[in-house]
Structures are given as structure tokens and as C-alpha cells.
Amino acid sequence: MLDEVFPIPTRALIRQGGRACFYRLVNTSPLLIQVQSGTKIVMADDRALRLEAGAYGLLPDYRPLTMENIPKAPQKYQTLALPVPRPLFEEAYIRMGSIAVPSRPVPAGTSSLPEEAEALFDYCCQPGNLTRLPGAIAKARLMELITWFALCGAVLGQCQSPRLEDRLRQMIESDTAFDWTLGHAARSFNMSEATLRRKLAAENTGFSEILSDTRMNRALGLIQTTTLPMAQVALEVGYDSPSQFAARFKERFGVNPRHVRGGSERFERIGAEVERSGADAHAR
């Protein structure tokens, strides 16, 4: 553990075989990323952030984002992502003192980092490096990395007032295979089902919608970062039937889950835009 609160982050290597533009993707932790191959375009508030191969970026937590990842043949699109707990950003910014923190969390990027910062990012992303360190040292390394990103212009915006939807997403994400019900959620939040339903309605959403969307976001991440068979991915997000899972995934994202890895089909825009692009393409 970094300490009693923060777990050691585990990096994810994101790959995708077909160009696509996915809508309303939500990260439950801020992400430090490096685009290693291809191009990434991230949109929020009608503002586009374009990251070419070699560029670094910072993606905010609990902010619906539109993401398009474009491969450059013959390579697949590939991005290295490191989730870092938000409190570490806030503590690092307080220690910096003079940093200007945006009032809203929006994607931010930098075309390059100093060599020392690049080496530190690589170090933190190598499996096992942080876990071998004492918690206090691992925390200091991550805060140093956050500081380098901030000095290069990638600063995480202020945390918005936490929504019930965000808390519910976090709970479901802890075990997406669990048979979650409105009753489970209500008891976890110490409220009646009617109260939970009413509070979610005030946020223009509902339990079933959040459950399904959280599972599909998790499924997309598993498809992009692992080689698990599709049947296993389906089980990991609570679907016993692979065909039912594939249908729900396509309904949400507009693409067959196998296309995300292989990029061998062409789809019309539904919840995503996809086109065949040489050999490879997209990621979360």
C-alpha cells in the first residue's frame, strides 16, 4: 500500500485493432497516459485534445469523455496508462504552491516531458517497480511524476461535488460480475430504494442505466488491455451469455467487441464511429 488509503497503481497497456470514436467513457481515477503508436483525440466541452505518438496526457476522473484512437499502419494504436489516486494530485499541487488548478477537470496534454520525467513515467509503469518500494517512497515517486506533468502544462482540474452516480459507479466497478440490484445499492448508501431512485432521477439517470454503462466501460477496458476470450470478458462483467453480452456491447458502442481487437469490419455510427483503417486502430 502507498499508505492506509491509496493502493499501488497498476499500469494498463491499451491496444486496439479498429478505428473508432467512443462516446461517454468515464474513468473512475485520473489517468496519466503516453500515446506510443497512432493518434488519440479526446473531447470534452466541445474542445478537442489531439495527442500524437510520443505525447503525454492527463485524463480526468468522473468526466464523460469522447475518445477516438487512430492507428498508423502497420502498427496498432497503443497507449500506456497509469491510474493515480486524485488525492495525490491535490497534495502535490499544494506542495507546489504556485500551481494554477483549473476550475473544471478537463483533458490536458504535453508534447514532451524532460528526460528525467520520461524515465520516471517509464519506471512507475514497469510492473513491480512501485510495489517493491516502501509506501512512502512509492507515494513520493508518483507525486514527483504529477509535478513534472504539471510543470509541463498537464494539470488536473478541481474535483467537482461528488455525484451519487459517481459513487454508484465506483461501487459497481469494484465487482462488475456481481448480481447488483437496486436493493444492494440502497443498503450500501443507507437509504431506501425509493430515495435512491429519486436521487438518481434528480441526476437524470437511473440504477439500471448506470449498472449497464459501468459494465460496458469495464468490458471495453478488458478487451483493450487483455487477451481474455470474449466469453470470459462477458463473465467478468456479469453476462453468462456471450451472445447477449456482444449484443449489449454493440448497442452501447456501435461495434462488435471482436472488432475492437481485430478491426476487420465496418460499422455505421450508433454509439461509436468506426471505419476500417489499414491494419489497426483505437483504444480507450
Automatic annotation (TrEMBL):
<dbReference type="InterPro" id="IPR020449">
    <property type="entry name" value="Tscrpt_reg_AraC-type_HTH"/>
</dbReference>
<keyword id="KW-0238">DNA-binding</keyword>
<dbReference type="InterPro" id="IPR009057">
    <property type="entry name" value="Homeodomain-like_sf"/>
</dbReference>
<dbReference type="InterPro" id="IPR018060">
    <property type="entry name" value="HTH_AraC"/>
</dbReference>
<protein>
    <submittedName>
        <fullName>AraC family transcriptional regulator</fullName>
    </submittedName>
</protein>
<dbReference type="Pfam" id="PF12833">
    <property type="entry name" value="HTH_18"/>
</dbReference>
<feature type="domain" description="HTH araC/xylS-type">
    <location>
        <begin position="166"/>
        <end position="263"/>
    </location>
</feature>
<dbReference type="InterPro" id="IPR018062">
    <property type="entry name" value="HTH_AraC-typ_CS"/>
</dbReference>
<keyword id="KW-0804">Transcription</keyword>
<keyword id="KW-0805">Transcription regulation</keyword>
